[in-house]
Amino acid sequence: MKMSVIGCGYLGAVHAASMAELGHDVVGIDVDAAKIAMLSRGEAPFFEPGLPEILTSSIATGRLRFSTDMADAQGSQVHFIAVGTPQRKGEQAADLTYVNAAIDGLIPFLSDGDLVAGKSTVPVGTAARLAEKISAGSGALLAWNPEFLREGFAVQDTIAPDRLVYGIPSGDAGSHAKALLDEVYATALSKDTPLVVTDYATAELVKVSANAFLATKISFINAMAEIAEVTGADVTQLADAIGFDARIGRKFLNAGVGFGGGCLPKDIRAFTARAEELGRGESVAFLKEVDAINLRQRDRVVQLVVDALGGNVYQKKVAVLGLAFKPNSDDIRDSPALDVAVRLHGLGADVTSTDPEATVPARRLHPQLSLTEDTMEALEGADVVVVVTEWKEFRELDPVAVAAVARGAIVIDGRNCLDAAAWRDAGWTYRGLGRP
Ligand code: UDX
Predict the structure, then answer these.
(1) C-beta of 252 in contact with ligand 1 (< 6 A)
(2) Predicted pLDDT at 234
(3) Which atom of ligand 1 is nearest to the CA of 261?
(4) DSSP string, 274-309
(5) H or E segment at 242?
């Protein structure tokens, strides 16, 4: 099937390459010429496991190409909108500038019967407004088809999603839209992937409520960690024990420095802002508490470091392990790990941060930080070691080897990902979050 993907960021680049991998004929379009040049060479503009491989193989077959020219969307039957919806500057709401620009730019190139499929996360009510715009300017239809991919597993999540959601209009237009999406996702549907066919508003809300639920789950366990801390309880064991209840589940119950990234933080804020616009602010008022609990975890990690150093970090050497908002990603958007490093630097600590993938973007954003890709170099002479992204190489560090290069013997486990007993046995003072 011929399709275009408008916006080639984390979402769009992966979607375009994955659709080509599934056998479709895809053009990815973006206004960023440097990004398009890289993608055209088969290079991923960000770290995502498996993406370079499918970019190269699909480009070689001729089924995948990239362009900066919206006119290249012409002739495709389905046009995916995969541009970003960041937080508006100085506000909580989502910024729809890129979505609006993508639709306006696309309309002149749409043919009768084409389907525009929105993937970007948008405030509920956006699709209905865009559908009117599209039908006023063309004979094309709109569907809202949210995306649930996780960074680090984005290719796998796109090729074999755990569910598909189609938000479509009623009547014949809806049947036509569904038939086209069924063709797009024929491989996943043949494997009995659950499909929910619904209206625009439900499809839009599915995405934001899924992210709100995940954020709530993380802040719930972090709140329990705060209580565990003052009672001597162990939040990790608590999470294991409640997680055995199938109604609760163990996933997303890892207490630590909290959630970050390009989705969860801004999505809960945009959801709150939209609910307030709709006169239903009280319905999701708890999300403000979820946000506050989450942001508090960064303070707690910084405070643990300050306490570990006797109340003053000035000119003390701190090794910060992790910059990305989670492992297997180089994404530093709203990263708690980067925030901890920046704050400690601001307090006058001599911070050296390390991350297997995220030092390059971190250096661009915070040139004042001392960064290295060599973990041992970061640990050299450290008075305190702080783990804030649970990369495998950090989880598997040998505490005896680390003790040989560090000066101090205090480790702050901001992700509760280290083997506390092994570090203590090697002579370290171990502090986790909500762990005795
Ligand atoms: C999220 C959703 O999971 C995905 O479905 C949606 O499409 C986009 O937003 P992503 O941003 O890639 O995906 O990250 P996710 O894996 O959800 O992690 C978000 C943050 O929560 C990370 O900072 C992670 O470290 C943190 N987290 C996750 C915890 O602190 N504890 C946990 O138990 C799980």
Answers:
(1) yes
(2) 98
(3) 11
(4) HHHHTT-GGGGTHHHHHHHHHHHHHHHHHHHHHHHT
(5) helix 235-243
Please identify which residue in the block is written with the tokens 């996943």. Answer: 188
Same domain, 130 and 251: no
Residues 84, 153: one domain? yes
The answer, yes or no, to whether any atom of ligand 1 lies below 6 A from the CB of 260, is: yes
List 17, 99, 263, 268, catalytic entry? 263
Are 204 and 193 within one domain? no
CA 257 to centroid of ligand 1, rounded, Å: 12
In the chain, the number of structural domains is 2
Q: How far apart are CA 394 and CA 359, in angstroms?
A: 15
The pLDDT value given to residue 28 = 98
3-state DSSP percent of the chain in helix, strand and coil, to 5: 45, 15, 40
Residue located nearest, by CA, to atom 1 of ligand 1: 150
Q: Is 8 a catalytic residue?
A: no
Give the residue-averaged pLDDT of 385-410: 98
- Both 171 and 219 in one domain: the answer is no
Residue ranges making up the domain that contains 236:
199-436
Binned at pLDDT 50, 70 and 90, residue 90 comes out as: very high
Quote the tokens at residue 88. Answer: 């508006």
DSSP structural state of residue 149: P
Burial (CB count <10 Å: 0-12, 13-18, 19+), residue 311: exposed
